[in-house]
Design goal:
Layout: H1 8-14, H2 17-22, E1 27-29, E2 35-37, H3 38-45, E3 47-49, E4 55-57, H4 79-95, H5 103-129, H6 137-170, H7 174-181, H8 191-195, H9 199-230, H10 234-258, H11 267-270, H12 286-312, H13 329-355, E5 362-364, E6 373-375, H14 376-395, H15 403-422, H16 428-446
Antiparallel strand pairs: 1-2, 3-4, 5-6
Helix pairs in contact: 3-4, 5-10, 5-12, 6-9, 6-10, 9-13, 10-12, 12-16, 13-14, 13-15, 13-16, 14-15, 15-16
Length: about 450
């Protein structure tokens, strides 16, 4: 005897709680906010007729005397029963547990990023040890305290503000926000697709990414420029930034490695480490992509400083006995190197995310994350976002600048647009400042006869 039963009840008994919660995004959200799972919609749509002329939901027994058939007496499958069987298969596939990204591969990524940061910190420490970077330890202590307080405050406020924004403006539930703030490693492969299924919700999530991810990016780099101008000791600036970034990356890696996978519990504190820099549209790779961006940025800023100081030599050494010192040169050069990363890169996402592809076209790029594409509109925004701050810097230079400096602004903006567009996603934070530093040093030596500063 073969009993006519469905698979929904069996699935409910066998699927683990984690998988059940991970499927919470497999739902339809209407304007009224009502939610219904795909499983419920399938059960409602797949009804079959019993032999007594009554109708019941397939797979849900209505009485202990459910009608059964002998194998030889079983009715021929009708189109409705076949569609019901197909729906059962679809439901069963939908309910299958989704494998999280491999733990071994995850651990390799985390170890690799920690190794990169450790190598960078060792290089900076060696530069300090051999005397290439001279450090005023008093300034280093004050700078480190200021840096830690500013970053802890910024990351805490940004994280909480994004959570509130997602609930109030985007309209997500507490569970959805918790999954976004969590490690995202246990989420199904279609989580991001389902989250962005509604055009209205997709647009608002794009706005969220722009405001909080790039907002933090601009704040951190602007603070770095402020930090540089406040503390004249270049060695103290680079050394404190390097050590602070190393501690941050190690803390983030430990949180992902040892923290719970469901995003609950201690993740309510762990997620503050990212300061809303984990882009929602990077899906399950969001936190790793954010960590890669932090490593890339710290490498870029540190080695841009080292390249510039080594390349310009005594021209930026304000020792009173140094006759080769050029007043105002460092104050002009350092913003020209970092401002394209601070504002040009940010403008690329601020403009490219909502308007990309509207007037021109989009194109795919290589990188981490589940969505890797850029647009012509974003490239144009990168160029002008780099050019305008550089022009303002040259125009307001206290020592005055020669025409070569104005030409340099245009060339740096072109270079930044190219490096931001074609570099591997999350490595542009390294490629942009390093390429700018190399170009500025070359330009300085090639145009030295004409000079950059008026009183050179």
């Amino acid at each position: 005897m073969a009993t006519l039963t469905g698979t929904a009840a069996a699935i409910a008994d066998t699927v683990s709680p984690r998988t059940s919660r991970a499927r919470s995004y497999q739902h339809a959200r209407g304007d009224s906010g009502d939610q219904s799972s795909i499983a419920a919609r399938l059960r409602a749509a797949t009804v079959t007729s019993t032999g007594k002329g009554t109708t019941k939901e397939k797979g849900v027994p209505v009485s202990p005397h459910e009608e059964t058939f002998d194998e030889g007496d079983a009715p021929e499958p009708t189109s409705m029963s076949m569609s019901a069987e197909s729906a059962d298969v679809a439901l069963q596939i939908e309910a299958e547990p989704v494998e999280a990204p491999g733990e071994d591969r995850l651990h390799v990524h985390l170890l690799f990023m920690m190794s990169l940061m450790l190598f960078q910190a060792v290089c900076v420490s060696l530069a300090v040890g051999v005397g290439f970077l001279e450090v005023d330890w008093g300034q280093l202590g004050m700078g480190t305290i200021l840096l830690v307080v500013a970053e802890v405050t910024r990351r805490t406020l940004w994280s909480w503000a994004r959570s509130a924004f997602l609930k109030c403006y985007v309209g997500l539930s507490d569970e959805q926000v918790r999954d976004i703030n969590g490690p995202r490693l246990n989420l199904p492969s279609k989580w991001l697709t389902d989250l962005l299924a509604s055009p209205k919700q997709k647009c608002r999530i794009k706005i969220t990414d722009v405001l909080f991810r790039k907002g933090g990016h601009v704040f951190t780099l602007t603070f770095t420029l402020f930090f540089t101008s406040l503390f004249g000791d270049h060695g103290a600036v680079v050394f404190s930034l390097s050590l602070g970034a190393l501690v941050l990356i190690v803390a983030q890696a430990a949180a992902v490695w040892f923290g719970p996978r469901d995003g609950g519990g201690v993740w309510r504190l762990y997620f503050l480490l990212w300061g809303a820099s984990d882009r929602i549209r990077d899906g399950r790779f969001g936190m790793r992509n954010a960590m890669g961006g932090s490593v890339s940025m710290m490498w870029g800023v540190s080695f841009a400083y080292i390249i510039t100081l080594a390349g310009l030599g005594k021209s930026v050494d304000d020792d009173p006995e140094n006759e080769e010192f050029v007043p105002g040169l460092w104050e002009l050069i350092s913003p020209l190197i970092l401002m394209p990363l601070s504002y040009g890169d940010a403008m690329g996402e601020i403009i490219g995310t909502p308007f990309g592809g509207r007037y021109f076209w989009k194109f795919r790029v290589r990188g981490f994350g589940e969505i890797n594409q850029k647009s012509i509109e974003g490239c144009i925004a990168v160029f002008f976002g780099s050019l305008i701050p550089c022009l303002i810097t040259v125009g307001t230079s206290a020592e005055g600048a020669k025409p070569n400096a104005w030409i340099l602004c245009f060339l740096i903006s072109c270079l930044t647009t190219a490096t931001e567009t074609f570099s591997f996603r999350s490595t542009d934070n390294f490629v942009i400042p390093v390429c700018n530093a190399v170009f500025v040093v070359l330009w300085w030596h090639l145009a030295k006869s004409g000079g950059l500063m008026k009183d050179e």
